[in-house]
Amino acid sequence: MSDLLPFNSTMIRDLFTPFPPQQEPDDTPGYWAVLQGNSLVVSAESQQALPSGVPLPIVTVSRTEPLKIGLWQGKPLRAIRIAVDSLLPAGYEALPFQGGDTRLDNTLATIAGRAAQIMHWEQRSRFCSHCGGELARIPDGWGKRCPTCGDEHFPHIHPCIIVLVRRGTELLLIRNAAWSVGRFSLVAGFLDFGESLEECVQREVREEAGIEVANIRYVGSQCWPFPSQQMIGFLADYAGGEVRPDGVEVVEADWFPEDALPLSPGGKRSISRWIIDTFRESD
Ligand SMILES: [Zn+2]
Predict the structure, then answer these.
(1) What percent of the chain has pLDDT over 70?
(2) pLDDT tens digits, residue range 137-164?
(3) CA-CA-CA-CA torsion for 137, 142, 143, 148, nearest 10 degrees?
(4) Ligand 1 centroid from CA 125, angstroms
(5) What is the mean pLDDT of residues 10-37?
(6) Residues 6 or more apart whose Cβ sits within 8 Å of residue 165
(7) How far is the CA of 19 from the centre of ligand 1 (A)?
(8) Is the pLDDT of residue 263 over 80?
(9) Residues 6+ apart with CB under 8 A from 208
């Protein structure tokens, strides 16, 4: 079940209680989600625990004001982003929560992703995109309101389809131009104006691999906080055409036997791996 994938809420339901942002002064001790690039700072000495205490036990230059985002193991959790070149004191280390490095526990990767998605929205919702006025927080939520023009703004979460296309026991995989040689994944792309999700699947497969698909069905979804996507997973059956990469965004595309697949990017935390592992065998 895709709810159990990293970055979805179910992964941390027993550890984390979210609540709306609170920035008022508060000295209640708690935990810290300290973000440094796409890494999370953890205590190296106590089996990957989040740093705890008030003030932040890491003396460094922060790039943002701390923001309380919920309760972690019953105590306040504050998120903060620090400079990528900040030196961490002894006893702490920054471990990636994106990519193939899976040293960080999945629950910590998930809370890091949540904090990163929230901080991204906070940093990009300071001014009104309509009139340029400074935005004010709408109480009890993540929305913002413009006192100048009255527009309201809510978190931007971008829908993106990802699809496993099957032809018998073969799977369609593509290599994006940005990926290293030998690494493949599923066709994926952002929803466009005027499209249903199924129409988006058909268009992306046509654009990236040059073929037609049929029998499109939803299989699961995943929050993908890099910086703020919603990955919506599908299966589809080959329906015609010759595989032909577009040569620009996609430099390789081909059918692979389901028992002899190449490396895939995104690592074990991605819905692409989950879809392949769960649905590689034809019905
Ligand atoms: Zn405005």
Answers:
(1) 92
(2) 998 899 999 999 999 999 999 999 999 9
(3) 20
(4) 11
(5) 85
(6) 171, 172, 186, 187, 205, 209, 211, 213, 236, 237, 238
(7) 26
(8) no
(9) 174, 187, 189, 245, 246, 249, 250, 253
Q: What is the pTM of this model?
A: 0.91
Question: Could you tell me the distance, in angstroms and rounded to a whole number, from the CA of residue 153 to the centre of ligand 1?
Answer: 9
CA 264 – CA 179 distance, rounded (Å)? 10
Distance 123 CA to ligand 1 centre (A): 17
Let me know the angle formed at the C-alpha of 94 by 48 and 273, rounded to the nearest 5 degrees.
80
216-243 pLDDT tens trace: 999 999 999 999 999 999 999 999 999 9
Q: Which domains does the chain have, with CATH numbers?
A: 2-123 (3.90.79), 158-279 (3.90.79.10)
Q: What is the DSSP string of 160-221?
A: EEEEEEEETTEEEEEEETTSPTTB-B-EEEE--TT--HHHHHHHHHHHHH--EEEEEEEEEE
Tokens of 212: 């037609």
Using DSSP bridges, classify how beta strands 67-72 and 16-22 pair: parallel, antiparallel or unpaired: antiparallel
